[in-house]
Design goal:
mainly alpha, 3-stranded antiparallel beta sheet, binds glutamic acid, binds zinc ion, Arc Repressor Mutant, subunit A, 12 strands
Amino acid sequence: MKIKTRFAPSPTGYLHIGNIRTALYSWLFSKKNKGNFVLRIENTDLKRSKEFFVKNILEILKWLNIDWDEGPYFQNKRINRYNDVINYMLKNGTAYKCYCSQKKLEKKRNEQIINGEKIKYDRTCYNSIKKNNNKSYAVRFLIPNNNKYITFIDTIRGKIIFNNNELEDFIIKRTDGIPTYNFCVVIDDWDMKITHVIRGEEHINNTPKQIHIINAIGANIPIYTHVSIITDDLGKKISKRNHNVNISEYKEKGYLPDALLNYILLLGWSYGNKEIFSLEEMKKLFNLKNLHKSSSTFNIKKLNWFNKHYLSKLSKKNMVIYLKLFCKKHNIKIDNNPSIEDLYKFFNNRLNTLDEINNLFYIFYKHIYYQNNFLIKKYLNLNTKIILNIFLKKFNDIQIWSIDNINIFLKKISSKLNITFPKLAMTLRPAITGLINTPPINNIIFLMGKKKIINRIKKSINFIETNKQ
Ligand code: GLU
Ligand code: ZN
């Protein structure tokens, strides 16, 4: 039997970490077993489904190199097929029409709450012989009473048992004529010959309903794997509302696809202590056996660690391409002081994300200005002006432009002025960059080159003079 898995996102929001994790696991499981991977867009929620979310799904999967063998299928194009099956079920009695109005259903629900009864549809329409041919109706699935329990085996959790009594005759087609999620999923998985369903834990409660439908139509029951939730440091389930889980944002910030995939792979799966997995390794080593039963914690520091690792492994050529791209994004116009290659040399192993170059690189190229605030005043004032003047006077003494010579020069200046090296650096930093916190000042001086440094020191002296009190 050919293994077939699927990723079935609903285009009602941007793809998030949890989505990609189920996509990745499903994809890897199909690859490992030489099976097929199906992409299906579950867009029967017409109000909340949006075309740009569909675009986002396709774009992100492509960016992550998660390719599919079939699809994308769209559920809204399969409505006729769903209706055929629903008509068949209406005929063979596994489903029935419900003419109850929303108001009537609500009233009954409230009564059940008041009486302390279980909230459940009371089968009025199943028991009535009346036919309301002109009225709009929903279609409900008839929960069979041949068994008290419905059970299934979950790969991670083992046997899961549901009491049929707990289930009501749920709606499989709404009054607006659109079939519901639990129904469409079953027909799709059946038609698409899906053998393994890998999805989030939140779908466990849907599984008994889906198995009931599968039994009613005589389809095969797939193997279910419900992956455990992802939480934050405080143990709270990560959600779109409270956490940054949107994959597009990680892409924008300059996380590399391989780093993100590697990190997400380990959010719920492990292979001994191995941490770094190439795509090929993932495809070869992934299994369902090693999925974790307990929840996983999302940790941005760990993700940054992976990203830093993957950034440092990029070839110089690729890194320079990325750097240029992100400079453009931040409107940083690179000239030769320093060149992008020089920046690469210095910052290659220091970036967590490509977006960090915004803070690191712009000091070299953008017009600096001194905020007339307390901190700048503390470092740029008439006392430190003496330091800056001496620096400027002696600066041309540096004959050969090298980090070593700059270090020697800076040491000479600090001993000549009888000040500590940190004090000297804390004067030069704001003078040259307008900032208090920067990468090591000797690197900055080296990268910027003589001319720019002279200009900036002069500018800072000017600032002190015009702002003196
Ligand atoms: N469309 C569902 C979701 O986005 C997935 C359903 C499934 O995997 O069975 O949560
Ligand atoms: Zn009814």
